[in-house]
UniProtKB/TrEMBL annotation, chains A, B:
<keyword id="KW-0804">Transcription</keyword>
<dbReference type="Pfam" id="PF00392">
    <property type="entry name" value="GntR"/>
</dbReference>
<dbReference type="InterPro" id="IPR000524">
    <property type="entry name" value="Tscrpt_reg_HTH_GntR"/>
</dbReference>
<dbReference type="InterPro" id="IPR028978">
    <property type="entry name" value="Chorismate_lyase_/UTRA_dom_sf"/>
</dbReference>
<dbReference type="Pfam" id="PF07702">
    <property type="entry name" value="UTRA"/>
</dbReference>
<dbReference type="InterPro" id="IPR036388">
    <property type="entry name" value="WH-like_DNA-bd_sf"/>
</dbReference>
<feature type="domain" description="HTH gntR-type">
    <location>
        <begin position="8"/>
        <end position="75"/>
    </location>
</feature>
<keyword id="KW-0238">DNA-binding</keyword>
<dbReference type="InterPro" id="IPR050679">
    <property type="entry name" value="Bact_HTH_transcr_reg"/>
</dbReference>
<dbReference type="InterPro" id="IPR036390">
    <property type="entry name" value="WH_DNA-bd_sf"/>
</dbReference>
<keyword id="KW-0805">Transcription regulation</keyword>
<dbReference type="InterPro" id="IPR011663">
    <property type="entry name" value="UTRA"/>
</dbReference>
<protein>
    <submittedName>
        <fullName>GntR family transcriptional regulator</fullName>
    </submittedName>
</protein>
Amino acid sequence: MLISDSKVPLYYQLVDILGKQIKENMKPHDRMLSEREICTKYNVSRTTVRLAMAELEKMGYIYKMHGKGTFVATLAENKQNLMESYSFTEHMKKLGKVPKTEVLSFEVIKVNDYLAKHMGLSGEENAIKIIRLRLADGIPMMVETSYLPFAKFSSLTEELVKKKPLYEIFKEEFSQVIKAADEEFSASIIPSREAHLLQVPTNSACLKLERTTYNTANQVIEFTFSIARADQFIYKVRHIR
Amino acid sequence: MLISDSKVPLYYQLVDILGKQIKENMKPHDRMLSEREICTKYNVSRTTVRLAMAELEKMGYIYKMHGKGTFVATLAENKQNLMESYSFTEHMKKLGKVPKTEVLSFEVIKVNDYLAKHMGLSGEENAIKIIRLRLADGIPMMVETSYLPFAKFSSLTEELVKKKPLYEIFKEEFSQVIKAADEEFSASIIPSREAHLLQVPTNSACLKLERTTYNTANQVIEFTFSIARADQFIYKVRHIR
DNA sequence: TTAATCAAGAGGTAGTAACCAGTTCAACAA
DNA sequence: TTGTTGAACTGGTTACTACCTCTTGATTAA
């Protein structure tokens, strides 16, 4: 079942196979085969099995109990890839809504002190500033203002941003893999400009969100402010371990 | 430096030692010793070193680059234990504020359908309902309403809750270790009861927070609603991987 | 000078082996 | 009957070995 001379590691092939089994045939708290049983079934070492299981655990698919076994997590139901939680597009699809994005502006700016500090840039560098309106089922949900380091994304165009989700662009066009993200949540009364864009009364509450996204080399690849309408938008995050 | 016959595993002793070194003597992007160098320095196998490094990586202390080395993460500056982000007490201490908690009510209730569903309980079970007012430097910050499964915490008393942070009680009195948490954020106009408790005008915005906390066996050990005043409270979360 | 090559050293993957520490339950002894 | 014990599982820890891929920089060849 596993391909030894594949470019994709054995343990990762196992992650795929077991993950699929869990999603298709198992329910929360079902017991998995023991590590040693998986070894013989797939003819791999326990090292490989434990690597795969560690990965599944990090993804929230399974949990282990010393002396008892490994079990399917309740968390497995609605969570695949942690990265998806950062993505408005993926987030909305998961909720059964149709996401849509309008790019309101796209420009290259010189970073100010605040941006330089938060993005780990020198004050001389440039950043790409993108303002987007996000809609779900045609209802305006949030306004996002994103800053990307120009040095890493100099060839990025407005057309591309209009065509593809930002996180797909990161990965497919610039080989930037998201490794970590910091998010800050707060609430306030909605600013009038955003009230207009989101089509809500001027005294409404809104959810403010600030996100800093890091690549595998621990560099900031995105710094985003979002303002979301309070009556429509709920933001979900999951912590594991 | 490491103690072979200790009850605490070698790899975890290494986590402590390396973590301390990072916090005390290193800064972001500094290179760590290579895995093989650490092996000889502490006289352990590479297995052990890699286990420790994996742990440090999960904690956000370090990041690795294939072929180049292992480096101190920028994230290390302000983050130790992911669990601490759930804890109001720890969270506030980290911000240099003095946390205080007033227990407003403590009672055992029969769960309704909504609670039963969210806590994985049958409709017949009981829960402990605790309402707390959280203050930082004497300023009321948020009102938290928590539900704990009575079956797991039947011996919990109001006195204990007044004396100790809830998450310390979980760990020390009931051996419940937090493994994962789901959080949902939204914003709204503050309800009048909370407006009064938080001493803000009735038309203020507030941050609403719903948290479900799981133990290592993937059972819900806490379900909490929070209402926080928008002008004072910012909630930070970090995702890794 | 410039480009290709190669070796050293980094982390990544994989196997084997052995023993430790919880959990469970059946077999045995009081 | 009621304990207790102990074997047979579970995952957890540790060591050793070997080879892979990626990065870097020095050496070599064009």
